[in-house]
Amino acid sequence: MRPLLCCLGLATLLGPCLACPSACSCSTKKNGRLLAECAYKDLQEVPEGLSSNVTILTLSANRISWLGQSSFAEVPEVQSLWLGYNQIGVVEPGTFALLVHLKNLDLSHNKIADFPWQDLRNLSGLQILKMNNNRLAGLPWDAFRSLKDLRSLWLNDNELTTLAEGTFDNLPSLSQLQIFNNPFNCSCKVFWLKKWTENTSVSITKGGSTLCVAPGRLKGRAVTDIPDHHCVAPSVQLTYLSNLDNTVMYDGLTLTLHCSVAGSPPPEIRWKIQTSSRRVEINGPNVARDGNVKQSQDRFLVFKNGTMAIPNFSKEDEGIYTCLAVNDVGTRDVSVNVALAGSENPAEDLLRDDPQASHLGGRSCYKGDEMDPSGAGEKLVIVYHMPRESKSRAGGAVPQVHLGTLLLALGIMLCC
Q1: CA–CA separation, 365 vs 236, rounded Å?
Q2: pLDDT for 359-393, tens place per residue?
Q3: What is the pTM of this model?
Q4: In b/e form, how buried is each residue of 344-360, taking b as 16+ CB within 10 angstroms?
Q5: Pairing label, strands 212-214, 184-185
Q6: CA-based torsion, 9, 12, 17, 21: positive or negative
Q7: C-beta of residue 186 within 8 angstroms of C-beta of residue 158
Q8: Using CA atoms, how far apart are residues 225 and 218, in angstroms rounded to an integer?
Q9: Helix, strand, coil shares, percent, the chain, to 5
Q10: Does Disulfide bond appear among the keywords (predicted)?
């Protein structure tokens, strides 16, 4: 009786360890890992009945077309998962999210066009990721951000036309990368990739076969061969002028900022404004040639040539004004911290504080030598003329300049 009980007890202990679907063959490797070999079985889905302590699961060369959240629920300890050469076209979010022990994941030679990249955030121990020979047309820039142990990444033979700058950042262990045989559009959006390959120690397999498909002038050239002169990072310069000569504060002051940019391709101009009461972002001109304001944000008038005008500039408009130049190579910005002050004798008061300051028609612009340690940019103090008899009026409400007249004047001066 005792030997029988021992055998029953041993079977109870070993039973779960040896659980294996009929279509698979399961065995224990010399290192103690449990292998479930289910390749070449004509399977249309992940089989049920796998042991919970399977660490190597091979499902290559089947006819699996779909993976869902429950597909690998039975194997939470799996470390190597081989799914190459199937017909997988759908991968539901959460399919791999709980497989925190995963080190090797092979999804090559499938039909994957859309992948739940957020699932990779939990797979910090992943070392090999094979996504080659699929239908991937794009990747989020932070797709691999959490994969600190990733050594080998295969993305070749997909439909990638571009890669976002920073895609391969924060991968300290990466030693092998394959991105060849993708139809790259070698606009300046991928110029960073050329620079990255020149400076990285990562081995890029068949780098010479990582070719441009477009534009026409670069077709057939390696991505690493994009001419430098085609792609130039932006440069930006900000100049300013307080306008409307011979007026005083209560008649209305217009501050004009002009953003000059250069680069290839020509940079877009954007503005960011931070005052004590609000934050505004303007991503393009809002004033048309005819002087009409195209957007509801008519407090800050932005013209196509890079000029911004702020009519009736007041203490409420004090703050940081930033011009950004943006193209496919990068972004540059410059800021000015604008403040407002009144004086009966602006030239004398300003020169008393700074003998190097200049006087402009009753109002002066002061450009400080020291940069604001907060990164706010140079300090611009507009000192406007305030006659003695007008002080009481300036302390009250400021009458509005007629906007239509101002727009027409600026439209003629700035939009042509």
Answers
A1: 20
A2: 333 333 333 233 333 445 566 665 554 555 444 44
A3: 0.69
A4: eebbeebeeeeeebeee
A5: parallel
A6: positive
A7: no
A8: 9
A9: 20, 30, 50
A10: yes
